[in-house]
Amino acid sequence: MSDADLGRALPLPTPSSELQARLAVRRSAPAQALAAPGPTPAEMAQILRLGARSPDHGKLFPWRFVVLGPESRAALAGALRPLSVRQADPGKAEKVLAKLTAAPVSVLVVSTPVEGHKVPVWEQQLSAGAVCMNLEHAADAFGYSASWITDWYSYDPQALELLGVEPGEQVAGFIHMGTLAEGPLERPRPDLAAKAVYRS
């Protein structure tokens, strides 16, 4: 976006049966099942651009992206492996590292809230979560499946150092992107009658 774009009128929403149909079957992919092909560098630039068009009260952009290819994630998994033995279930902790290495490309979304701003930190963190969801939708728009996960290394202090997450920042999620050999299985969905209240 250039400065010339600021203030211009954007198009109003129009009904889209295609978008409704895609949202109706939206499903996160099993991270370990994601394989090549994945987004090209040019596609990834567009996916990030679309993902960044997320609600952001205060225009703070309180998040950042780290795009991880196969080599960087393999190195990261290797560095995290010694830390897995300290987890409550070391076997499981090591096993989930496979999620880091399966997909062709991953985006680490880091929540970077601005402390002391009039916009509460919670709202800034919600913006980072909205970015994660938008990245999944953007990947889908380019024909790829995606998986939004965190796992133990998103919270372990030493792991956060390896990830380059600074004090005051948090991992909003890893968005793994690639191609599935077959569609994922449907999962339970909420009973909206128990979750929604309509008031006139």
Write a short abstract of this structure.
The protein is α+β, with helices and mostly antiparallel strands and 200 residues long. It has helices at 17-24, 41-51, 70-84, 90-95, 98-102, 121-141, 157-163, 192-195; strands at 63-68, 105-111, 145-149, 170-178.
What features would you describe in this structure?
The chain is α+β, with helices and mostly antiparallel strands. The protein is built from 8 helices and 4 strands; from the N terminus they run ααβαααβαβαβα. The longest helix has 21 residues, at 121-141. The radius of gyration is 18 Å and the shape is globular. The chain starts with 16 loop residues before the first helix and ends in a 5-residue tail after the last helix.
Task: Present the secondary structure layout.
Elements: H1 17-24, H2 41-51, E1 63-68, H3 70-84, H4 90-95, H5 98-102, E2 105-111, H6 121-141, E3 145-149, H7 157-163, E4 170-178, H8 192-195
Antiparallel strand pairs: 1-2, 2-4, 3-4
